[in-house]
Amino acid sequence: MAVDYAVIIVYLAGMLAMGWWGMRRAKSKSEFLVAGRRLGPWMYSGTMAAIVLGGASTIGGVGLGYQYGLSGAWMVFTIGLGLLALSVFFSARIARLKVYTVSEMLDLRYGGRAGLISGVVMWAYTLMLAVTSTIAYATIFDVLFDMNRTVAIILGGAIVVAYSTLGGMWSITLTDMVQFVVKTIGVLLLLLPIAVIKAGGFSEMKAKLPTEYFDPLGIGGETIFTYVLIYTFGMLIGQDIWQRVFTAKSDRTARWGGTVAGTYCLVYAIAGAVIGTAAKVMYPKLPSADAAFATIVKDELPVGVRGLVLAAALAAVMSTSSGALIACATVANNDIWSRLRGVVSRGGGEEHDEVKGNRAFILIMGVAVIAIAIALNNVVEALTVAYNLLVGGLLVPILGGLLWRRGTAAGALASVAVGGLAVIGLMASYGILANEPVYYGLLSSLVVYVVVSLATKPTDAAVLAAWRERLAGRGGETMETGPEPVTA
Predict the structure, then answer these.
(1) Residue range 65-81: average pLDDT?
(2) How would you class 461 by CB atoms within 10 Å of its CB: exposed for 0-12, middle for 13-18, buried for 19 or more?
(3) C-beta separation of 332 from 31 below 8 A
(4) Would you say residue 348 has pLDDT above 70?
(5) Can you spell out the DSSP letters for 343-354?
(6) Prediction pTM value
(7) What's the Cα-to-Cα distance from 80 to each of 62, 144, 177, 219, 411, rounded to whole Å?
(8) Which sign does the torsion angle of CA 142, 148, 150, 151 carry?
(9) Percent of the chain with pLDDT over 90
(10) Residue 478: HSE in the Cβ half-sphere, 13 Å Cα cutoff
(11) Number of H helices and number of E strands within the chain?
């Protein structure tokens, strides 16, 4: 394993070096939080694909393939569909707003009264997303070094917190590009063909497995519908995703770069399911489906290649973890702490000393994430709670604000409160992993939003006029002088 260890150590050292590079570039709030809104199409595509394809998409995607066959691709496939929908229909308008958070968008659209409560819901979502990504380090480091779970979480989490705190979005962008390349080589170009060959090819896989393993809908229609509701719609409104949209240097970059990233996700989804199906042929009686990825890597890959593929899994986890961490810290600072202090930013002028405050929040949130990850065991439940709150509480007021002029601040606030409380109450009643909480929570959020908006006074004409100006790309922050745009 010495060669494999060397590959991983070089990779981790490179992540820290890129954090140091990013610290020298991130000199203002815009540079630190959204990379100066300077990313070109290729770098934007790579970083967007990196953040949405995390440990759940890689290790979990292979596990679903092991359990259900090709239809196990649906979870990651719906993530790709959500990214495509965001990029084609909404990303250009989102990028033109020149804000930093989803809550700032709600303030602009509804007149400044919807931000705090939505910020709390978004903060809870991004916090749990960061926690679940951090927990995944334990699985990877256990395969690599037979390491204690707590030590693995601290080691992996500390590296992510270090480079994220140092350079903010610049560090995360550069590390994500490396992680995107490593994932592409490790999973798509190496693990996928090796797994299929080791399983005897597709003909042998079909001969040894039940026919339902090759049924595109074998996982079940209700499960697919739930994935669409949670992951496709979740991609449309998550702070971690929007913050990447804010990094695009132009409308065209946001639209076409995101479309490329979404298409890549669809390919990645199918690859994970095929790898899992191949693992089922080779190891038909694993104790857990989630063990399929680690088992096939550990037993079937040659020295060196094994290290690279494990680095790819580590890259997948790190990219999602760092993106969720900076999103969590941005929301905590800009949408909660600043509002409690009575200071609300809506993408206005830049203050260079704000970098220090945002850096401190990343460090604080990072320590909290590591502590919660150590204490928490059930990753699936934590992630389900996060997405249920996000979709049930925020989907309707966000999309309503973008698509329906008659939506009001009162309707948005009522929608967030009722949808969020309904989700929490129904999870307590039906169970965290039940489908009903997100179904009924989303429905109640929609009904309340429409009824209250129609029953209250329309949004002030001046607020809507200012909103239309921002959607058209007029107003908001002025692009500051600084490093040249990154167009790669």
Answers:
(1) 95
(2) exposed
(3) no
(4) no
(5) ---SS-S--TTH
(6) 0.87
(7) 16, 30, 18, 18, 30
(8) negative
(9) 49
(10) 4
(11) 25, 0
